[in-house]
Amino acid sequence: MQSLSAKDLTLGYGETIIIDHLDIHIPKGEITVFIGGNGCGKSTLLRSLARLLKPQSGDVILNGQDIAKMKTKEVAQKLAILPQSPTTPEGLTVYELVKQGRHPYRGLIKPWSKADEEAVIQALKSTNIYNLKDRSVDSLSGGQRQRAWIALTLAQKTDIILLDEPTTYLDMTHQIEILDLLFDLNEKNKHTIVMVLHDLNLASRYAHHIVAIKDKKVYAEGKPEEIITSQLVHDVFQMKCNISCDPLFGTPMCIPHGKGRSIFTHQSKASSKMSYMR
Questions:
Q1: Backbone dihedral region of 51: left (phi > 0), alpha (psi from -120 to 50 degrees) or beta?
Q2: Count of domains in the chain?
Q3: What does DSSP assign to residue 110?
Q4: Do 44 and 134 fall within a single domain?
Q5: What distance lies between CA 228 and its chain's CA centroid?
Q6: Is the pTM value of this prediction over 0.85?
Q7: Do residues 134 and 26 both lie within one domain?
Q8: Range of the domain at 107
Q9: 191-220 pLDDT per residue, tens
Q10: CA nearest to 127, candidates 145, 143, 150
Q11: Which among 63, 21, 15, 69 is positioned nearest to 45, based on CA atoms?
Q12: How far is it, in rounded angstroms, from Cα 106 to Cα 88?
């Protein structure tokens, strides 16, 4: 099983520093979720871990090697990344899209092999879209389209999968569908999965390990039930909240403070009026 970590990592764009001297180790065979406020560097860190962004200093270590010194195909055989809102060439079928996941194993003169075909079919079946393989990706629903992209990453046959906000723009049903799929992949195949998520309650439900980013560094990391507190939410998101227990899963559940219609207020007023009338 492949390992992934970063040491003394500094990332930025030009003179703007986004991540500053950060150390992180991704637990093998678990689901890790990055959380933090908008613009804190979650996606930037994820891109760097996939070698899509060159560090200004420090190193990303993949399976004991400096990822910057590895060949592109070698990296792609160990680690797959699904960026946020990927675009599909018009008219491409689901099968043709997923087939692209085999590029790291092919050369100019190497023909399509039985192993390539088996990897694609297995990826389609694992994501429950085999029956859609001949459909145009453009014709799919948001949830189905996201499954097709996840199938592409599975066809790469990597131990590590990185996903940048995989539930963005999906409705509640499809968000749970995609996260359930990723949870099952981790449970059955022990994939190391690293995600960026905005929903703190879903992050707490699905993650084994959470990394909270603030002020260009790791503010806290650990099991959700150990680190998700009202103080963390206040410090990381500048929001007051109560932390309760999810009644179904027992994981932390964030209840934000703020304005809204309160049935308790209405009930109190109604109760006072009834008492007065008596």
A1: left
A2: 2
A3: P
A4: no
A5: 18
A6: yes
A7: no
A8: 90-157
A9: 999 999 999 999 999 999 999 999 999 999
A10: 150
A11: 21
A12: 21
211 backbone dihedrals φ, ψ, rounded to 5°: -120, 115
Residues 163 and 139 in one domain: no
190 and 250 part of one domain: yes
Largest Cα–Cα separation, the chain: 91
Q: Which residue has the tokens 């592409």?
A: 152
Please check whether residue 85 lies inside any domain of the structure: no
pLDDT of 106: 83
* CA gap 55, 24 in Å, rounded: 14
- Three-state secondary-structure class, residue 55: coil
Domain boundary among 139, 157, 175: 157
Residue 171 lies in a domain: yes
**Are 49 and 144 in a shared domain?**
no
3-state SS, residue 214: strand
Handedness of CA 17, 6, 77, 54 (dihedral sign): positive
How does residue 270 score in pLDDT terms, banded at 50, 70 and 90?
A: low
Residue 228's closest CA among 33, 48, 15?
33
Beta bridge pairs of residue 65: 62
Helices (H), 78-229: 94-99, 114-126, 142-155, 172-189, 200-206, 224-227
Of how many residues is the chain composed?
278
